[in-house]
Structure formats: structure tokens, C-alpha cells
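TEACHING EXERCISE
Course module: macromolecular assemblies
Task: Read the component lines below, then compare them to the predicted structure of the full complex.
Student: A.B.
Group: 4
Components provided:
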Amino acid sequence: MKILVINAGSSSLKYKLFNMDNARVMAGGIIERIGEPQGILTHHIYTKDCKKKIVQKQEIKNHKRGMHLAANLIIDSKNGVIDDINQIDAIGHRVVQGGEAFASAILIDEKVKQAIKDNNTLAPLHNPPNLAGIKVAEELFPHIPNIGVFDTQFHRTMSSKAFLYALPHEFYTKFKVRKYGFHGTSHKYVSRKAATLMEKNINKTNLITLHLGNGCSICAVEKGKCKDTSMGMTPLAGIMMGTRSGDIDPAIIGYLLEQTRMTIKELNTVLNKKSGLKGICGLNDMRDIHKASAKGNEKATLAIDMFCFQVKKYIGAYAAVLGHVDALVFTAGIGENDDMIRLKICENLSFLGIKIDPEKNRQKTSKPFYLHSQDSRVQVWVVPTNEELQIARDVVQILG
Ligand code: ADP
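Instructor-supplied answer key:
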């Protein structure tokens, strides 16, 4: 079975074609700078006999043109990985905000598209381009079914005591104000993968999954299902991130609007783009922050300290709500690569049964590995995330 996964952003579109008979990527790529004078299409071929990168630079007026170019490469007589686009069994679309409408992946029809549009107000930067990607696929590949897979769907198992904010109840009923959670596809993938690696049944496994990248979120997974997660109604909530503030006292917003001449729009930009690690030390890439800290930059050291402190607090909180934790699972750019951050987060957690082996922690590999010491009651894993593969799996399940 061949599944194409599409992740459409406002000026970019990522795609991956999977052969689900062996869960391998056949080809994939990214179309960037859509709508600018010079767009870039970077296409990779990953078949057994051919590993190749093709870069095309030209004006790519819109997503449709970009996807058309990518499709041509997928079926190209010389470099193509399939002969005919209709050999693709289905297309899985990443959709960021499914709201309360979607608790699982779904075959897209007019009603589903309308429901995605209805959630635009909750994800104004993401849902419109996601929907645009769906429409492009419908136009270019009219014979292939489209399936929506939502970042929020994994978190739909949260109970009301976890997802409600302590606000007047009509804010929820009238304006849909509640915690939705994000990165759900990543939390789902790494939780399942970790359980497999631990040789445990996911339905009997409790995990704390830590997606630490540019965006960061943590999830308490009880018997395979999300019990709570750190992001909220929007991906601004939870722990501090590269440029996002994470949780702050809500009264700060009103206070700053009064004290500064900022508009609410400007303040939103500050919270999303100029806060988090960047707000504290002026840098948002963790690799740069380590370099600055090593050179004696105190703000960089503070940013690292704050980040690890906040993650540690979530581990404590989620250990408390889960009652029993089988493993911590680190993933995404920082979680997969940054041994110093992992060490600092897990420091002094032996009272929770969490002990890591510094040597195992230092491994550099793109494969999953464990880093707990032999006497650690809780296992600790690094599992590289693979959101596209999880989307393809969800699609196969729907087709099945
Ligand atoms: P996104 O949320 O955009 O998908 P990623 O998961 O790629 O982000 O994570 C980006 C973050 O991961 C950046 O802060 C980057 O510095 C960090 N990162 C990537 N590789 C390393 C590494 N080798 N060591 C430390 N941090 C890393």
C-alpha cells in the first residue's frame, strides 16, 4: 500500500511517499518559498537502489503548482519511484486543529472540510493552509481518497477535569475555550514505539513523553492514552520554547497592555516570537545557547536552567497524576540530540525512581536508545519522532 503524506504550511509544503508494506519512505521533499519570485523544491529519493537529491529553483506561484512539480518527480520516467500517481492508495493530510470534531483520522468530504474551516479561528496560521493542501490534492489527484489526521486527536482522551480552564463555563460552550493539546501525532508515535522497544503492551503502559524541539510539549500517557498535556487551547501554552513564552500569569497580559503602548496583536507577537529561550538570552537555537553559555554568557546559562527547571516540574506533576510511570520518552530536536539537557532534566529525580546512566546518555545515534541506569525503576528512552509515518499508519487504519 502506498500512502502520500502532505503537510501544507502557509508558504511551504512537505510531502513523503511511504510504502506501507515495509513502512519505508520511497520519496519525499519540501517545497519552500511558495509565492515568492524564486521558490525551491527539494526532492529526495530513498529507494533501495537509488538515494538521490534533486533541487529545482523556479517561481512556484502556489501550492498547486508546487505539488504538481513534486508529483512529476514522483512519477518521472528516470527518477520516479512509481509509474502512475494513481498507484497511491490514499493521501494523509496533517491538520493542526481538529477541535472537538475529530477524535481520530477521517476520510475527507465536504462536511469534514467545513468542520476544519470552522476551527480556523482556533488555529488561524495553520488550518487555512492545511485545508488549502487538501483542496490541491483533490484537484490534482481526483481519484485518490484524502484523509485528515489531526495534531489534536491524540489528546481527545483527556477528561474535562484536565481540559477545562477555570473560567466561566460559557467560555467553553460558546467560544470553545479549552485545552486541545498539540504534537499529538508525535506523542502517539513515540509512545507506541517506546512500548514496543520495552516489549510492553501500550495499553498497559504509562509514559511521560517529552517533545522538546522548537515547539515543546509534554504528555502524560496512561495505558497508551493521553491523560494530560502541557500545550493548551493554542501551542503557546506549557513550557517555555524557542521563541514562545509557555505559561505565564494571565494577569501579565492586561498589565503589559496598560503599561506599554503595545496593541494586543503586538503583544501576541512578543509572546509567540520574542519570548521563551529567545526572550531570556536573545537566542532560540539550543546549540547556539550552549555555545554562548560555554563562553560565559550568563543569560544563556539562565535560559538553559529555566528550560530544564520547567520540564522537571512537568515530570513531577505528571508522575503525580499517573501514579505509576514506566518510562520517560525524549523526542524532537533537543530531546533526541541534547544529552546535557536530558541530564539536567533528570538530575535528582531518583526519588521518583528515575536514574540515568551518563555514559549511555551521551550516545550519538539516529536510532532509539535507552539511557536509564540498571537500578532505575523508571526506564528513560530517546525515540526519534516520525510524525509522517504515524500519519501514514493512521491512514492505513482508516482504509482498513
Ligand atoms: P521543530 O519544532 O521546528 O520541528 P526540531 O524538533 O527540529 O524543531 O528542534 C529544533 C531544536 O532542536 C533547536 O532548538 C535545535 O537547537 C535543537 N537541536 C537540534 N539538534 C541539536 C543538537 N545536536 N544538540 C542540541 N540541540 C539540537
